[in-house]
Write a structure and sequence with these properties.
With 196 residues, the protein is α+β, with helices and mostly antiparallel strands. It contains five helices and nine strands; from the N terminus they run αβββααββαββββα. The chain has a nine-stranded antiparallel beta sheet, with helices on both faces.
Length: 196
């Protein structure tokens, strides 16, 4: 995460500390308060243990390391997310509860080969997962194609794959760059469906 944070700060300045998270690049524009990038504050280690017990497994080592530092992330106006292990509904943004999100994502409905998969985040139509019985890879599952489209050894590689792409889709003020010039400058977070 360190290199990703440095990359984001090179374009949009330093993250500011808030009660529940670090925030970067105000995209409110006199409307609802919003930020381009949010890193949720870590929760205590016992909460991580509780969540692992709820899933009846140890988490992938890369995911455990991530949760020791962050309770989820929300990048590029919610386009790219890693779920939190604990929600906080008092904050402007919610980190999404990984237990609840796994109930909603229902990846096991795509076939028996995904019964042991735990979803920990998403981009567009793609779910980020790990197999709780085999920690060799982190997977990207495309819900439109109904199959795994990428495998990564490290969480940093998975995140960099998407951050590198999305980075150029937003200008220096955190505004989405629209290919349709009539939409230029609108503060919306729709993402390209051509990239997975």
């Amino acid at each position: 995460m360190k290199k990703i944070i440095e990359k984001l700060e090179n374009k949009w300045k330093s993250f500011e500390r808030d009660t529940f998270y670090l925030k970067q690049c105000d995209t409110s524009h006199n409307k609802k308060q919003s930020y381009l990038n949010v890193l949720f504050n870590a929760t205590n280690v016992s909460k991580l243990q509780d969540v692992q017990e709820a899933f009846s497994c140890e988490f992938h080592p890369e995911i455990k390391d991530f949760y020791k530092n962050f309770n989820g992330i929300m990048l590029f106006s919610e386009s790219l997310r890693i779920y939190g292990i604990e929600s906080n509904y008092e904050a402007l943004y919610d980190s999404y509860d990984i237990i609840e999100q796994n109930e909603n994502d229902c990846i096991e409905s795509y076939g028996d080969e995904y019964l042991n998969f735990i979803v920990f985040g998403y981009y567009s139509y793609c779910l980020f997962c790990f197999d709780k019985t085999d920690f060799e890879f982190l997977y990207v599952f495309d819900t439109r194609q109904e199959k795994v489209v990428y495998k990564f050894k490290k969480l940093s590689e998975l995140l960099s794959h998407y951050v590198d792409y999305l980075y150029d889709e937003y200008d220096n003020q955190g505004m989405k760059i629209h290919y349709d010039k009539s939409l230029k400058g609108l503060p919306i977070a729709n993402v390209s469906t051509e990239f997975i």
